[in-house]
Write a structure and sequence with these properties.
0% of the residues lie in helices and 54% in strands. It has no helices and five strands.
């Protein structure tokens, strides 16, 4: 029987109290691509390299804790990630939210702790 993870907190590795109440979390894997075509214009060589993990997490912001800055290094699941984007959203009828994007290159283990 299949097992499904319910809720945003799950096994994210993002500490619930670091920036507020965790609302959602995603981990996207990407890589750079290289390809070459043969004499007939058909791709005959293809390689994916420079694999990266990009994490996006949204929190109801605990405003007693400052938002991180671009370039800050934080730890998620004991791995170092660099903060690449910080969005703070405010609405008249809702709590302030903070959406953070973190990136780590898997092949080169960059950034380091």
């Amino acid at each position: 029987m299949a097992t499904y993870e319910f809720g945003a907190v799950g096994k994210t590795g993002c500490a619930e109290g670091d920036y507020g109440l965790l609302q959602d979390f995603s981990d996207s894997r990407t890589g750079s691509e290289a390809s070459r075509k043969n004499g007939q214009g058909v791709t005959s060589l293809f390689k994916v390299y420079d694999e990266a993990s990009e994490i996006t997490a949204t929190f109801v912001h605990d405003t007693t804790k400052p938002a991180p800055s671009i370039g800050d290094i934080i730890s998620i699941n004991s791995l170092a990630y660099c903060v690449t984007k910080v969005d703070i959203a405010q609405k008249v009828d809702d709590w302030e939210e903070i959406k953070l994007t973190f990136k780590r290159f898997i092949d080169g283990a960059v950034p380091t702790t």
